[in-house]
Design goal:
Elements (H helix, E strand, L loop, with lengths): L8 H11 L5 E6 L6 H8 L6 E4 L6 H16 L9 H13 L6 E6 L1 H4 L6 H11 L7 E7 L2 H9 L11 E4 L5 H10 L6 H11 L3 H4 L8 H10 L8 H9 L3 H12 L7 H8 L5 H12 L3 E4 L10 E4 L2 H10 L9 H5 L3 H17 L1 H7 L7 E8 L6 E9 L3 E8 L9 H18 L4 E8 L14 E4 H4 L2
Parallel strand pairs: 1-4, 1-5, 2-3, 3-4, 10-11, 11-12
Antiparallel strand pairs: 6-7, 8-9, 9-10
Helix pairs in contact: 3-4, 4-6, 9-16, 9-18, 12-13
Length: 472
């Protein structure tokens, strides 16, 4: 199998294991649009499938079956008649697979949700194909893939009919990490500093499709202007296409993320209902679950709070950037991003987005602190009674009787702790200890781009994490 793929080590290991399995395997690959699902599967197998079909967007059942017919004739070099139903189409597929001499018979059905047109009975036919034929063999590897995450979860992964518990592996493809993003740029001959890569990530996330739009001869700042603020910017109109491709009734999903975007620390379920006026029925639960499954939001509880008080927080970088700068773009400046460097608007965005960047790389932060093997829960904390509120960006509650209170600061140089900020940190630590009544040792941890500038106040910090650590 071909291995020239950036990152994705876990996914490659899984695909290798399933390919060498002694039983038939049914894999469901899902994740947000543009994250590289199809690319991963095609590259891993070097496009060598017994059969590969991609559904047609906005097509009728008849058109999907014609597409199936053209594909199976091309793959088999035989003149199959156009199937009238999906049951008949899958019987033709069985005939093709049984005639194959491949040791492992890999079938790739891409954009699966598009194949399931109204009243087509596609799912029933897929159930029959797997339960009545493929699962009885030991040489079939059926890979299904789709960006419409809600459909993939409801109809394939959590199917309550004939496909119930038939999936042998579900693979949620995540965006690149910082390290994988750096590897990707280097593979393209694009040399950026880690600071520049971080700022790029904070604008569009580790989405391979977006990163591939970057032009080698331009700086990161120039590329952001070109992709977001130019008159013909490619990512200016991506937002609605993205949500429409992922979710049925995407308008309700957009209402939720827009509400979350207005509250950095997130909202409770009841606050989401109040902000969006959406019904309190199971529909909202589905929306929140699907957004989480696509890595658009995360759920967490503030330190000391119960599960029922959990918060939903928007974490998708592209969505955050869209609402902050694109949706109501009043700038009319093709060079807006270059001209905004070091302005209050830019710095405010960078500070919050860096917090999100750190949350997305918690594993790397734990490794840098030497606690990767220590059971740890991550949360935030705020006390509203203390003056203007004592707030901790990230609380790492460790099993080894230590709590790290983490402060994240995105700066262009070493970060200097001033006398006023030192006082704030001491007050936060004191209020946290008093309010939570914790008996654990409390350490202040600074997560910065280039570390701390050594002065009379820096010694009060127990531990440091720098941007370079997030790239490990």
């Amino acid at each position: 199998m071909r291995q020239s793929i950036i990152g994705r080590k876990k996914e490659l290991d899984v695909l290798n294991r399933l390919y060498n399995s002694i039983q038939s395997e049914f894999i469901a690959v899902y994740g947000r649009r543009r994250v590289g699902k199809t690319f991963l599967i095609r590259q891993f197998f070097n496009n060598k499938f017994v059969f590969q079909l991609s559904g047609l967007a906005n097509a009728t059942t008849k058109e999907q079956l014609v597409n199936f017919n053209l594909t199976i004739k091309r793959e088999s070099k035989k003149d199959f008649p156009i199937a009238k139903t999906w049951l008949e189409a899958f019987e033709q597929l069985i005939s093709l697979v049984e005639s194959s001499n491949d040791e492992r018979k890999v079938i790739f059905l891409d954009e699966l949700p598009w194949l399931d047109t109204p009243r087509s009975q596609f799912i029933q036919a897929l159930e029959h194909f797997w339960n009545g034929w493929a699962s009885a063999r030991n040489d079939v590897m059926l890979i299904t893939c789709g960006s419409a995450t809600s459909w993939m979860i409801d109809k394939i992964i959590n199917n309550h009919g004939g496909l119930h518990n038939r999936i042998t592996y579900k693979m949620r493809l995540e965006p690149f990490t910082l390290m994988e993003t750096q590897e990707y740029f280097r593979s393209k001959g694009m040399e950026y500093t880690q600071y520049q890569i971080a700022e790029c990530y904070m604008a569009m996330g580790g989405i391979p499709y977006y990163l591939n739009m970057m032009q080698k001869e331009l700086s990161v700042t120039q590329n952001i202007d070109l992709l977001f603020f130019d008159e013909n910017a490619l990512l200016k109109t991506e937002f609605h296409n993205l949500y429409a491709a992922l979710f049925k009734n995407s308008e309700d999903y957009i209402k939720v993320v827009e509400a979350l975007c207005k509250k950095n620390k997130g909202l409770t379920r009841n606050e989401i209902i109040a902000a969006t006026k959406l019904s309190t029925n199971g529909g909202l639960s589905t929306i929140l679950k699907n957004l989480e499954n696509c890595s658009f939001i995360r759920t967490y509880t503030s330190f000391g709070k119960k599960e029922r008080d959990k918060l939903y927080q928007l974490t998708d970088f592209y969505t955050l950037f869209y609402f902050k700068f694109i949706k109501q773009n009043k700038f009319n400046d093709d060079n807006f991003w270059v001209n905004s460097i070091n302005t209050p608007l830019h710095n405010s965005w960078a500070g919050y987005s860096f917090e999100m960047l750190c949350l997305y790389h918690l594993k790397q932060i734990k490794t840098a602190l030497g606690i990767s093997g220590v059971q740890t829960s991550a949360s935030s904390w705020k006390d509203y009674e203390y003056e203007n509120g004592a707030q901790i960006d990230l609380v790492l509650d460790r099993k080894d009787q230590i709590i790290n209170l983490c402060e994240m600061k995105f700066a262009t140089d070493e970060y200097e702790i001033t006398k006023n900020y030192d006082t704030q940190l001491r007050q936060k630590k004191s209020v946290f200890a008093a309010k939570t009544k914790t008996r654990k040792a409390i350490h202040i941890t600074m997560v910065t781009t280039y570390g701390l500038k050594q002065n009379m106040y820096s010694n009060s910090i127990q531990s440091e994490v720098v941007l370079e650590d997030l790239f490990r």
